[in-house]
UniProtKB/TrEMBL annotation, chain A:
Superkingdom of source: Bacteria
TM region positions: 21-43, 85-106, 118-137, 149-168, 205-228, 252-272
Family from the record: Belongs to the binding-protein-dependent transport system permease family.
UniProt-recorded name of the protein: Spermidine/putrescine transport system permease protein
Keyword Ribosomal protein: no
Length: 286, 279
Protein backbone atom coordinates (compact mmCIF):
# COMPACT_ATOMS: atom_id res chain seq x y z
CA UNK A 1 0.00 0.00 0.00
CA UNK A 2 2.35 2.66 1.16
CA UNK A 3 5.44 2.74 -0.96
CA UNK A 4 8.26 4.46 0.79
CA UNK A 5 9.83 7.39 -0.90
CA UNK A 6 13.50 7.97 -0.55
CA UNK A 7 12.97 11.67 -1.10
CA UNK A 8 13.74 14.18 1.60
CA UNK A 9 10.77 16.01 3.09
CA UNK A 10 9.60 18.95 1.04
CA UNK A 11 10.05 21.36 3.93
CA UNK A 12 12.47 24.16 3.42
CA UNK A 13 11.99 24.14 -0.30
CA UNK A 14 9.68 27.09 -0.14
CA UNK A 15 9.98 30.51 1.42
CA UNK A 16 10.94 30.14 5.06
CA UNK A 17 9.52 32.89 7.17
CA UNK A 18 10.33 34.11 10.63
CA UNK A 19 8.10 32.58 13.28
CA UNK A 20 6.05 34.53 15.75
CA UNK A 21 7.74 35.68 18.96
CA UNK A 22 5.63 33.18 20.87
CA UNK A 23 6.95 30.34 18.74
CA UNK A 24 10.49 31.39 19.49
CA UNK A 25 9.85 31.86 23.19
CA UNK A 26 8.41 28.36 23.47
CA UNK A 27 11.09 26.79 21.30
CA UNK A 28 13.82 28.52 23.29
CA UNK A 29 12.34 27.37 26.59
CA UNK A 30 12.16 23.80 25.36
CA UNK A 31 15.70 23.87 24.01
CA UNK A 32 16.96 25.36 27.27
CA UNK A 33 15.41 22.60 29.35
CA UNK A 34 16.89 20.01 26.99
CA UNK A 35 20.48 21.15 27.03
CA UNK A 36 20.96 23.29 30.14
CA UNK A 37 21.97 20.27 32.26
CA UNK A 38 24.43 19.16 29.59
CA UNK A 39 25.97 22.61 29.32
CA UNK A 40 26.19 22.74 33.09
CA UNK A 41 28.16 19.50 33.14
CA UNK A 42 30.56 20.68 30.43
CA UNK A 43 31.13 24.02 32.15
CA UNK A 44 31.36 22.38 35.55
CA UNK A 45 34.34 20.45 34.24
CA UNK A 46 36.20 23.76 34.01
CA UNK A 47 35.72 24.54 37.69
CA UNK A 48 37.32 23.14 40.79
CA UNK A 49 35.49 20.99 43.28
CA UNK A 50 35.67 23.62 46.06
CA UNK A 51 34.18 26.18 43.65
CA UNK A 52 31.33 23.80 42.86
CA UNK A 53 30.64 23.04 46.49
CA UNK A 54 30.66 26.70 47.44
CA UNK A 55 28.34 27.79 44.65
CA UNK A 56 26.79 24.86 42.75
CA UNK A 57 25.17 27.01 40.08
CA UNK A 58 28.04 29.41 39.43
CA UNK A 59 30.35 29.94 36.46
CA UNK A 60 34.03 28.94 36.33
CA UNK A 61 36.13 31.55 38.11
CA UNK A 62 38.95 31.12 37.37
CA UNK A 63 38.72 28.79 34.38
CA UNK A 64 40.68 25.59 35.01
CA UNK A 65 41.71 23.10 32.35
CA UNK A 66 43.16 20.78 34.88
CA UNK A 67 40.17 18.41 35.18
CA UNK A 68 39.99 17.70 31.47
CA UNK A 69 43.75 17.40 31.24
CA UNK A 70 43.76 14.97 34.15
CA UNK A 71 41.03 12.79 32.68
CA UNK A 72 42.74 12.69 29.30
CA UNK A 73 46.19 11.91 30.62
CA UNK A 74 45.77 9.94 33.83
CA UNK A 75 42.56 7.97 33.62
CA UNK A 76 41.66 5.00 31.46
CA UNK A 77 39.68 7.29 29.22
CA UNK A 78 41.56 6.50 26.00
CA UNK A 79 41.61 2.76 26.59
CA UNK A 80 37.89 2.80 27.25
CA UNK A 81 37.14 5.00 24.26
CA UNK A 82 39.14 2.57 22.12
CA UNK A 83 37.18 -0.43 23.46
CA UNK A 84 33.89 1.35 22.87
CA UNK A 85 34.95 2.23 19.34
CA UNK A 86 36.03 -1.32 18.45
CA UNK A 87 32.80 -2.76 19.78
CA UNK A 88 30.56 -0.11 18.24
CA UNK A 89 32.26 -0.27 14.82
CA UNK A 90 32.27 -4.06 14.81
CA UNK A 91 28.60 -4.13 15.72
CA UNK A 92 27.66 -1.51 13.14
CA UNK A 93 29.55 -3.20 10.33
CA UNK A 94 28.05 -6.61 11.08
CA UNK A 95 24.53 -5.22 11.51
CA UNK A 96 24.64 -3.33 8.22
CA UNK A 97 26.16 -6.19 6.19
CA UNK A 98 23.97 -8.94 7.64
CA UNK A 99 20.89 -6.72 7.75
CA UNK A 100 21.35 -5.71 4.13
CA UNK A 101 21.87 -9.29 3.02
CA UNK A 102 18.82 -10.55 4.92
CA UNK A 103 16.62 -7.65 3.87
CA UNK A 104 17.74 -8.04 0.25
CA UNK A 105 16.83 -11.70 0.22
CA UNK A 106 13.51 -10.99 1.93
CA UNK A 107 12.70 -8.15 -0.45
CA UNK A 108 13.93 -9.31 -3.87
CA UNK A 109 13.81 -13.08 -3.87
CA UNK A 110 10.59 -15.03 -4.09
CA UNK A 111 10.59 -18.21 -2.15
CA UNK A 112 8.29 -20.34 -0.10
CA UNK A 113 7.97 -19.17 3.49
CA UNK A 114 9.35 -15.73 2.76
CA UNK A 115 6.55 -13.87 4.53
CA UNK A 116 6.73 -16.32 7.39
CA UNK A 117 10.43 -15.67 7.79
CA UNK A 118 9.84 -11.94 7.68
CA UNK A 119 7.13 -12.19 10.33
CA UNK A 120 9.62 -14.11 12.42
CA UNK A 121 12.01 -11.18 12.21
CA UNK A 122 9.31 -8.63 13.02
CA UNK A 123 8.38 -10.76 16.00
CA UNK A 124 11.97 -10.28 17.10
CA UNK A 125 11.02 -6.64 17.64
CA UNK A 126 8.52 -7.73 20.26
CA UNK A 127 10.97 -9.81 22.24
CA UNK A 128 12.31 -8.04 25.27
CA UNK A 129 16.06 -8.40 24.92
CA UNK A 130 16.79 -7.25 28.45
CA UNK A 131 15.02 -10.26 29.90
CA UNK A 132 17.45 -12.59 28.17
CA UNK A 133 20.56 -11.12 29.76
CA UNK A 134 21.14 -13.72 32.49
CA UNK A 135 20.82 -16.83 30.33
CA UNK A 136 22.77 -14.99 27.66
CA UNK A 137 25.58 -14.51 30.12
CA UNK A 138 25.53 -18.23 30.94
CA UNK A 139 25.61 -19.08 27.24
CA UNK A 140 28.56 -16.78 26.58
CA UNK A 141 30.32 -18.23 29.60
CA UNK A 142 29.90 -21.75 28.28
CA UNK A 143 31.27 -20.60 24.93
CA UNK A 144 34.29 -19.09 26.71
CA UNK A 145 33.54 -15.69 25.27
CA UNK A 146 33.33 -13.75 28.53
CA UNK A 147 35.85 -10.90 28.61
CA UNK A 148 36.18 -10.61 24.88
CA UNK A 149 34.86 -8.06 22.42
CA UNK A 150 32.72 -10.78 20.84
CA UNK A 151 30.73 -11.19 24.06
CA UNK A 152 29.31 -7.72 23.44
CA UNK A 153 29.33 -7.60 19.66
CA UNK A 154 27.55 -10.87 18.87
CA UNK A 155 24.46 -10.33 21.08
CA UNK A 156 24.23 -6.69 20.03
CA UNK A 157 24.21 -7.67 16.37
CA UNK A 158 21.53 -10.25 17.03
CA UNK A 159 19.35 -7.79 18.91
CA UNK A 160 19.74 -5.05 16.29
CA UNK A 161 18.96 -7.21 13.28
CA UNK A 162 15.14 -7.25 13.50
CA UNK A 163 14.85 -3.46 13.50
CA UNK A 164 17.46 -3.22 10.74
CA UNK A 165 15.59 -5.62 8.51
CA UNK A 166 12.26 -3.95 9.21
CA UNK A 167 13.70 -0.57 8.19
CA UNK A 168 15.68 -1.82 5.17
CA UNK A 169 13.24 -4.16 3.50
CA UNK A 170 10.69 -1.54 2.38
CA UNK A 171 13.50 0.49 0.81
CA UNK A 172 14.75 -2.50 -1.14
CA UNK A 173 11.24 -3.60 -2.12
CA UNK A 174 10.48 -0.14 -3.47
CA UNK A 175 13.20 -0.36 -6.11
CA UNK A 176 11.36 -0.86 -9.41
CA UNK A 177 11.58 -4.25 -11.06
CA UNK A 178 12.61 -2.52 -14.30
CA UNK A 179 15.88 -1.42 -12.77
CA UNK A 180 16.72 -4.97 -11.86
CA UNK A 181 15.83 -6.16 -15.36
CA UNK A 182 17.91 -3.39 -16.89
CA UNK A 183 20.85 -4.35 -14.70
CA UNK A 184 20.44 -7.98 -15.69
CA UNK A 185 20.45 -7.05 -19.38
CA UNK A 186 23.63 -5.11 -18.78
CA UNK A 187 25.11 -8.32 -17.48
CA UNK A 188 24.89 -7.70 -13.73
CA UNK A 189 24.30 -10.67 -11.50
CA UNK A 190 21.94 -10.46 -8.56
CA UNK A 191 24.90 -9.60 -6.37
CA UNK A 192 26.03 -7.00 -8.87
CA UNK A 193 22.55 -5.50 -8.75
CA UNK A 194 22.70 -5.40 -4.95
CA UNK A 195 26.15 -3.81 -5.00
CA UNK A 196 25.73 -1.32 -7.84
CA UNK A 197 22.03 -0.44 -7.80
CA UNK A 198 20.23 -1.43 -4.63
CA UNK A 199 22.88 -0.32 -2.18
CA UNK A 200 23.40 3.19 -3.52
CA UNK A 201 19.62 3.67 -3.78
CA UNK A 202 18.99 2.65 -0.19
CA UNK A 203 21.87 4.67 1.21
CA UNK A 204 19.67 6.85 3.49
CA UNK A 205 18.19 3.77 5.11
CA UNK A 206 21.62 2.16 5.45
CA UNK A 207 22.95 5.26 7.17
CA UNK A 208 19.95 5.28 9.49
CA UNK A 209 20.35 1.69 10.61
CA UNK A 210 24.09 2.15 10.86
CA UNK A 211 23.77 5.20 13.09
CA UNK A 212 21.11 3.58 15.24
CA UNK A 213 23.24 0.48 15.72
CA UNK A 214 26.33 2.53 16.45
CA UNK A 215 24.70 4.80 19.03
CA UNK A 216 22.91 1.89 20.71
CA UNK A 217 26.17 -0.01 20.98
CA UNK A 218 28.18 3.01 22.09
CA UNK A 219 25.69 3.70 24.88
CA UNK A 220 25.04 0.14 26.01
CA UNK A 221 25.71 -0.65 29.61
CA UNK A 222 24.00 -3.76 30.96
CA UNK A 223 25.62 -6.26 28.60
CA UNK A 224 29.19 -4.93 29.00
CA UNK A 225 28.61 -4.68 32.76
CA UNK A 226 27.99 -8.39 32.98
CA UNK A 227 30.32 -9.81 30.36
CA UNK A 228 33.35 -7.49 30.62
CA UNK A 229 34.74 -7.84 34.11
CA UNK A 230 38.29 -7.24 32.84
CA UNK A 231 39.02 -3.55 33.51
CA UNK A 232 41.16 -3.33 30.38
CA UNK A 233 38.16 -4.17 28.24
CA UNK A 234 35.78 -1.71 29.89
CA UNK A 235 33.79 0.57 27.61
CA UNK A 236 33.08 4.25 28.24
CA UNK A 237 29.70 3.84 29.98
CA UNK A 238 31.33 1.42 32.43
CA UNK A 239 34.21 3.86 32.76
CA UNK A 240 31.89 6.76 33.58
CA UNK A 241 30.20 4.75 36.27
CA UNK A 242 33.47 3.48 37.75
CA UNK A 243 35.09 6.88 37.69
CA UNK A 244 32.11 8.49 39.42
CA UNK A 245 31.96 5.89 42.16
CA UNK A 246 35.72 5.78 42.59
CA UNK A 247 36.25 9.53 42.90
CA UNK A 248 33.07 10.58 44.65
CA UNK A 249 34.73 13.61 46.18
CA UNK A 250 36.25 14.81 42.91
CA UNK A 251 33.04 16.31 41.52
CA UNK A 252 34.84 18.42 38.94
CA UNK A 253 36.76 15.42 37.67
CA UNK A 254 33.56 13.40 37.30
CA UNK A 255 31.95 16.29 35.42
CA UNK A 256 34.93 16.45 33.06
CA UNK A 257 34.94 12.69 32.48
CA UNK A 258 31.20 12.69 31.88
CA UNK A 259 31.39 15.51 29.33
CA UNK A 260 34.21 13.83 27.44
CA UNK A 261 32.23 10.60 27.36
CA UNK A 262 29.20 12.42 25.92
CA UNK A 263 31.14 14.04 23.13
CA UNK A 264 31.48 11.25 20.54
CA UNK A 265 27.79 10.26 20.50
CA UNK A 266 26.79 13.92 20.30
CA UNK A 267 29.13 14.62 17.37
CA UNK A 268 28.08 11.51 15.56
CA UNK A 269 24.42 12.27 15.98
CA UNK A 270 24.75 15.91 14.95
CA UNK A 271 26.39 14.81 11.72
CA UNK A 272 23.79 12.18 10.95
CA UNK A 273 20.61 13.73 12.38
CA UNK A 274 19.04 14.57 8.99
CA UNK A 275 19.63 11.05 7.79
CA UNK A 276 18.06 9.51 10.87
CA UNK A 277 14.86 11.49 10.64
CA UNK A 278 14.73 10.83 6.89
CA UNK A 279 15.25 7.12 7.40
CA UNK A 280 12.69 6.87 10.19
CA UNK A 281 10.15 8.49 7.91
CA UNK A 282 10.16 5.32 5.91
CA UNK A 283 9.72 3.31 9.05
CA UNK A 284 6.75 5.19 10.48
CA UNK A 285 5.04 5.92 7.21
CA UNK A 286 1.32 5.32 7.62
CA UNK B 1 17.54 -16.66 17.98
CA UNK B 2 19.75 -14.96 20.51
CA UNK B 3 16.64 -14.23 22.55
CA UNK B 4 14.63 -17.39 22.07
CA UNK B 5 17.38 -19.88 22.87
CA UNK B 6 18.51 -18.11 26.06
CA UNK B 7 14.91 -17.83 27.20
CA UNK B 8 14.57 -21.58 26.80
CA UNK B 9 17.59 -22.00 29.05
CA UNK B 10 16.17 -19.47 31.49
CA UNK B 11 12.99 -21.50 31.89
CA UNK B 12 15.08 -24.61 32.55
CA UNK B 13 17.46 -22.97 35.06
CA UNK B 14 14.58 -21.27 36.83
CA UNK B 15 13.36 -24.62 38.07
CA UNK B 16 16.52 -25.19 40.08
CA UNK B 17 18.17 -23.79 43.11
CA UNK B 18 21.51 -23.10 41.49
CA UNK B 19 24.58 -21.07 42.31
CA UNK B 20 25.86 -21.01 38.77
CA UNK B 21 28.73 -23.44 39.28
CA UNK B 22 28.56 -26.89 37.71
CA UNK B 23 25.34 -28.29 36.31
CA UNK B 24 22.13 -27.44 38.15
CA UNK B 25 21.06 -30.41 40.27
CA UNK B 26 18.79 -29.20 43.03
CA UNK B 27 15.39 -29.27 41.37
CA UNK B 28 12.87 -27.09 43.19
CA UNK B 29 10.04 -26.90 40.68
CA UNK B 30 8.18 -23.61 40.69
CA UNK B 31 9.43 -22.54 44.10
CA UNK B 32 11.56 -19.73 42.68
CA UNK B 33 8.45 -18.22 41.12
CA UNK B 34 6.38 -18.38 44.30
CA UNK B 35 9.33 -16.91 46.22
CA UNK B 36 9.52 -13.98 43.81
CA UNK B 37 5.85 -13.14 44.14
CA UNK B 38 6.11 -13.35 47.93
CA UNK B 39 9.07 -10.98 48.08
CA UNK B 40 7.80 -7.46 48.86
CA UNK B 41 10.88 -6.01 47.11
CA UNK B 42 9.94 -7.74 43.88
CA UNK B 43 6.38 -6.48 44.22
CA UNK B 44 7.78 -2.99 44.74
CA UNK B 45 9.83 -3.46 41.59
CA UNK B 46 6.68 -4.43 39.70
CA UNK B 47 4.89 -1.35 41.02
CA UNK B 48 7.82 0.85 40.02
CA UNK B 49 7.81 -0.59 36.52
CA UNK B 50 4.10 0.15 36.30
CA UNK B 51 4.70 3.73 37.44
CA UNK B 52 7.39 4.16 34.80
CA UNK B 53 5.31 2.61 32.01
CA UNK B 54 2.19 4.67 32.64
CA UNK B 55 4.01 7.77 33.85
CA UNK B 56 6.12 7.83 30.69
CA UNK B 57 3.11 7.49 28.43
CA UNK B 58 0.96 10.05 30.24
CA UNK B 59 3.66 12.68 30.68
CA UNK B 60 5.81 12.28 27.58
CA UNK B 61 2.91 11.85 25.15
CA UNK B 62 1.29 15.28 25.54
CA UNK B 63 4.64 17.08 25.87
CA UNK B 64 6.06 15.40 22.78
CA UNK B 65 2.95 16.09 20.76
CA UNK B 66 3.01 19.75 21.71
CA UNK B 67 6.70 20.16 20.96
CA UNK B 68 6.49 18.22 17.70
CA UNK B 69 3.60 20.37 16.46
CA UNK B 70 5.54 23.48 17.43
CA UNK B 71 8.73 22.35 15.73
CA UNK B 72 6.78 21.30 12.67
CA UNK B 73 5.85 24.93 11.98
CA UNK B 74 8.08 26.59 9.47
CA UNK B 75 10.36 29.17 11.00
CA UNK B 76 13.95 30.16 10.77
CA UNK B 77 16.29 28.26 13.03
CA UNK B 78 13.91 25.34 13.33
CA UNK B 79 16.59 22.81 12.45
CA UNK B 80 18.76 23.99 15.34
CA UNK B 81 15.91 23.67 17.82
CA UNK B 82 15.13 20.19 16.55
CA UNK B 83 18.71 19.14 17.04
CA UNK B 84 18.85 20.51 20.60
CA UNK B 85 15.66 18.73 21.62
CA UNK B 86 17.15 15.39 20.57
CA UNK B 87 20.32 15.82 22.62
CA UNK B 88 19.14 14.07 25.80
CA UNK B 89 17.96 11.10 23.80
CA UNK B 90 21.34 10.55 22.17
CA UNK B 91 23.30 10.52 25.40
CA UNK B 92 23.93 7.23 27.13
CA UNK B 93 21.49 6.44 29.91
CA UNK B 94 24.49 5.93 32.18
CA UNK B 95 25.92 9.36 31.41
CA UNK B 96 22.55 10.99 31.92
CA UNK B 97 22.13 9.11 35.18
CA UNK B 98 25.51 10.23 36.53
CA UNK B 99 24.85 13.76 35.37
CA UNK B 100 21.56 14.02 37.21
CA UNK B 101 22.98 12.32 40.23
CA UNK B 102 25.53 15.14 40.44
CA UNK B 103 22.93 17.82 39.80
CA UNK B 104 20.65 16.41 42.47
CA UNK B 105 23.16 15.91 45.28
CA UNK B 106 22.31 17.38 48.65
CA UNK B 107 22.48 21.15 48.37
CA UNK B 108 23.68 20.69 44.79
CA UNK B 109 22.77 22.63 41.70
CA UNK B 110 19.07 21.84 41.57
CA UNK B 111 18.61 22.63 45.25
CA UNK B 112 20.56 25.87 44.88
CA UNK B 113 18.46 26.86 41.87
CA UNK B 114 15.22 26.14 43.70
CA UNK B 115 16.34 28.19 46.69
CA UNK B 116 17.42 31.12 44.54
CA UNK B 117 13.98 31.05 42.92
CA UNK B 118 12.39 31.19 46.36
CA UNK B 119 11.16 27.62 46.15
CA UNK B 120 13.42 26.23 48.85
CA UNK B 121 10.45 24.42 50.33
CA UNK B 122 10.57 21.99 47.42
CA UNK B 123 14.07 20.79 48.20
CA UNK B 124 14.12 17.05 48.78
CA UNK B 125 16.52 14.23 49.30
CA UNK B 126 15.80 13.55 45.63
CA UNK B 127 17.49 10.20 45.25
CA UNK B 128 17.58 8.99 48.85
CA UNK B 129 14.04 9.61 50.12
CA UNK B 130 12.22 6.32 49.74
CA UNK B 131 8.96 7.99 48.79
CA UNK B 132 10.46 10.49 46.38
CA UNK B 133 13.10 8.55 44.47
CA UNK B 134 10.83 6.81 41.97
CA UNK B 135 9.25 10.14 40.96
CA UNK B 136 12.69 11.71 40.61
CA UNK B 137 13.68 8.83 38.35
CA UNK B 138 10.49 9.24 36.36
CA UNK B 139 11.30 12.91 35.85
CA UNK B 140 14.83 12.11 34.65
CA UNK B 141 13.52 9.43 32.31
CA UNK B 142 10.99 11.89 30.95
CA UNK B 143 13.75 14.42 30.32
CA UNK B 144 15.79 11.83 28.49
CA UNK B 145 13.16 10.04 26.43
CA UNK B 146 10.73 12.76 25.42
CA UNK B 147 13.17 13.54 22.60
CA UNK B 148 12.65 10.09 21.15
CA UNK B 149 8.89 10.62 21.04
CA UNK B 150 9.50 13.97 19.37
CA UNK B 151 11.76 12.45 16.68
CA UNK B 152 9.16 9.83 15.84
CA UNK B 153 6.32 12.33 15.79
CA UNK B 154 8.27 14.77 13.60
CA UNK B 155 9.00 11.95 11.18
CA UNK B 156 5.29 11.12 11.21
CA UNK B 157 4.33 14.78 10.75
CA UNK B 158 6.50 15.15 7.69
CA UNK B 159 4.42 12.45 6.07
CA UNK B 160 1.23 14.48 6.47
CA UNK B 161 0.65 15.90 3.00
CA UNK B 162 0.88 19.69 2.80
CA UNK B 163 -2.13 19.67 0.48
CA UNK B 164 -4.38 18.54 3.32
CA UNK B 165 -3.36 21.25 5.75
CA UNK B 166 -3.37 23.86 2.99
CA UNK B 167 -6.86 22.82 1.93
CA UNK B 168 -8.04 23.12 5.51
CA UNK B 169 -6.44 26.55 5.80
CA UNK B 170 -8.22 27.69 2.63
CA UNK B 171 -11.47 26.48 4.14
CA UNK B 172 -10.81 28.91 6.96
CA UNK B 173 -9.60 26.56 9.65
CA UNK B 174 -7.34 28.08 12.31
CA UNK B 175 -3.89 26.64 13.00
CA UNK B 176 -5.22 24.89 16.06
CA UNK B 177 -8.25 23.48 14.24
CA UNK B 178 -5.97 22.09 11.54
CA UNK B 179 -3.82 20.34 14.11
CA UNK B 180 -6.80 19.04 16.02
CA UNK B 181 -8.84 17.73 13.10
CA UNK B 182 -6.33 16.98 10.36
CA UNK B 183 -2.80 16.50 11.64
CA UNK B 184 -3.25 14.69 14.94
CA UNK B 185 -5.66 12.07 13.60
CA UNK B 186 -3.16 11.30 10.83
CA UNK B 187 -0.48 10.80 13.46
CA UNK B 188 -2.42 7.92 15.02
CA UNK B 189 -0.15 5.13 13.77
CA UNK B 190 3.02 6.98 14.78
CA UNK B 191 1.65 7.65 18.27
CA UNK B 192 0.72 4.01 18.72
CA UNK B 193 4.16 2.83 17.61
CA UNK B 194 5.79 5.24 20.04
CA UNK B 195 3.53 4.01 22.85
CA UNK B 196 4.53 0.48 22.05
CA UNK B 197 8.26 1.18 22.02
CA UNK B 198 8.02 3.30 25.15
CA UNK B 199 6.15 0.59 27.00
CA UNK B 200 8.65 -2.14 26.10
CA UNK B 201 11.55 0.14 27.02
CA UNK B 202 9.99 1.10 30.36
CA UNK B 203 9.41 -2.51 31.33
CA UNK B 204 13.08 -3.34 30.84
CA UNK B 205 14.56 -0.15 32.24
CA UNK B 206 17.86 -0.82 33.94
CA UNK B 207 20.87 1.44 33.23
CA UNK B 208 19.47 4.67 34.59
CA UNK B 209 18.14 3.09 37.77
CA UNK B 210 21.37 1.18 38.30
CA UNK B 211 23.72 4.16 38.19
CA UNK B 212 21.45 6.78 39.72
CA UNK B 213 19.93 5.11 42.70
CA UNK B 214 21.77 4.35 45.89
CA UNK B 215 22.12 0.53 46.22
CA UNK B 216 20.60 0.65 49.70
CA UNK B 217 17.55 2.48 48.41
CA UNK B 218 17.28 -0.03 45.60
CA UNK B 219 17.56 -3.01 47.90
CA UNK B 220 14.69 -1.62 49.98
CA UNK B 221 12.60 -1.68 46.83
CA UNK B 222 12.01 2.06 46.61
CA UNK B 223 13.77 2.39 43.28
CA UNK B 224 14.15 -1.22 42.11
CA UNK B 225 12.75 -2.33 38.78
CA UNK B 226 12.32 -5.89 37.59
CA UNK B 227 15.56 -5.68 35.62
CA UNK B 228 17.67 -4.31 38.49
CA UNK B 229 16.09 -6.86 40.83
CA UNK B 230 16.98 -9.60 38.39
CA UNK B 231 20.62 -8.51 38.05
CA UNK B 232 21.04 -7.81 41.77
CA UNK B 233 19.78 -11.24 42.75
CA UNK B 234 20.77 -13.41 39.82
CA UNK B 235 24.16 -12.02 38.90
CA UNK B 236 25.61 -10.25 41.89
CA UNK B 237 24.10 -12.39 44.65
CA UNK B 238 24.73 -15.47 42.45
CA UNK B 239 21.21 -16.83 42.93
CA UNK B 240 21.18 -18.01 39.32
CA UNK B 241 18.10 -20.18 39.52
CA UNK B 242 16.12 -17.44 41.20
CA UNK B 243 17.45 -14.74 38.85
CA UNK B 244 16.42 -16.79 35.85
CA UNK B 245 12.94 -17.17 37.30
CA UNK B 246 12.73 -13.37 37.53
CA UNK B 247 14.00 -13.18 33.93
CA UNK B 248 11.19 -15.46 32.82
CA UNK B 249 8.62 -13.36 34.69
CA UNK B 250 9.99 -10.19 33.10
CA UNK B 251 9.98 -11.85 29.71
CA UNK B 252 6.42 -13.09 30.04
CA UNK B 253 5.09 -9.75 31.29
CA UNK B 254 6.83 -7.81 28.52
CA UNK B 255 5.88 -10.26 25.83
CA UNK B 256 2.23 -10.51 26.86
CA UNK B 257 2.02 -6.73 27.09
CA UNK B 258 3.57 -6.49 23.62
CA UNK B 259 1.23 -9.06 22.16
CA UNK B 260 -1.88 -7.49 23.71
CA UNK B 261 -0.81 -4.08 22.51
CA UNK B 262 -0.14 -5.39 19.06
CA UNK B 263 -3.39 -7.31 18.93
CA UNK B 264 -5.60 -4.44 19.96
CA UNK B 265 -3.86 -1.29 18.87
CA UNK B 266 -1.08 -1.99 16.43
CA UNK B 267 -2.64 -4.61 14.23
CA UNK B 268 -3.48 -2.19 11.47
CA UNK B 269 -0.26 -0.23 11.79
CA UNK B 270 2.33 -2.92 12.05
CA UNK B 271 1.57 -4.04 8.53
CA UNK B 272 1.19 -0.64 6.99
CA UNK B 273 3.43 1.49 9.09
CA UNK B 274 6.30 -0.31 10.71
CA UNK B 275 6.93 -2.50 7.74
CA UNK B 276 5.82 0.08 5.23
CA UNK B 277 3.94 -2.55 3.32
CA UNK B 278 0.48 -3.98 3.67
CA UNK B 279 -0.53 -7.33 2.35
Amino acid sequence: MAVNSVLPPSTGRRQVSWGTPLTYALALAIAAVSIAPVIYVVIGGFRTTPQIVADPAGLPDPFVWDNYARVLTQSNFWQQAFNSAVIALGTTLAVVVLGLAAAFVLARYRFRGREGLYTFFTLGLLFPAGAAILPLYLMLRDLNLINSYYAVILPQVAFSLPLTIVILRPFLSAIPRELEDAAAIDGASRLGFLWRVAMPLSRPALVTVGVLAFVASWNSFLLPLLVLSDVNLHTLPLGVQNFSSQYTTDTAGVLAFTSLAMLPALLFFTLAEKQIVGGLQGAVKG
Amino acid sequence: MFVLVPMGFAVYYSLFRWRGVGPPTEFVGLRNYTLAFQDPIFLDALRNNAIIVFGSLLIQGPIALGVALLLNRRFRGRAVFRLLVFVPYVLAEVTVGIMWKLLLTDEGTVDALLRSLGMGGLVQAWLADLDVVIWTLLAILTWKYVGFAIILLLAGLSNVPDELTEAAAIDGASWWQIQRHVTIPLLGPTIRIWMFLSMIGSLQIFDMIWVTSVPAVRSLGASATMATYMVDNGFFARLWGYGNAVAVILFVISFVAALLFQRFLLRRDIEGAITGRAK
